[in-house]
Amino acid sequence: MFFPVILSVTEEKHQLFLSFEKSVLPHLNDLYNFSLRITGKQSSAKRLLNETFLRAFAFYNKFENGGRCRTWLFRIMLNIFKNSHRKTDAKNLLKYEDEENSYKKIRDSSVDIPDMEMIFRNLSDNEIGDALALIPADYKTVIILQDIENFTYEEIADLIDYPVEIVISRINIARKMLFMSLYECSLKR
Amino acid sequence: MDKKYIIQLITSYADGEIGEQKRKDEAEKLIDKNPDINFDYRVQILIKSIISERFKIQPAPEYLVQSIKRKIKTSG
Asked: Which of B17, B56, B72 to mutate to test the interface with A (most CBs of A within 10 A)?
């Protein structure tokens, strides 16, 4: 009587894995990309991805298929990131209060956006990646979700547990900070 | 006009998140008439396009995919 019980448990787990492989693993690239952008490091991104999928599998039997799988996975990743991966040295990050005055000065000067666009487009992927890494996590997260992962404001608000107004405000500030960061980077060239 | 309201309006307009035509018209009018708002709007559009173009989704390395599958299979 012992073996059939073991067999049925193994079979059940195998079926669960097959279902997981079919419905969850297709989102792995999106999640990898997101983890790469929010952590800024390949080693941290891999660790975060591993933890996310292991946790997702552990709770997969409680996940209702009617729910949105991609959003569910992003929520798991964001929670893990918030709780354990977010230990970036805050001293190196930009502060909007510091950047706001410089931003206004640029706006009031004769800086031309098409000229800036040309300069920014000549920056390398590494330079742009480094500029993005300077944005504090709360702000960086929302522009990645909006501009790369194509979530709507409502979906982002749901993912980060903040009202839509806060999401919009953070997106606005994040882009201004990245603009400043790229502007400073272009001056150093 | 309230600064917060303008920020919400311009950002939502840049992200194509405004459904109501009246609010779209309001955003367009502000962008046309006010140089500061025009600058802010163009910064939003510029950075949005740079991020989406430079950080396209890249596939996870195959060895990582296989390693995750193995760990899941042997977990619990």
From this structure: B72
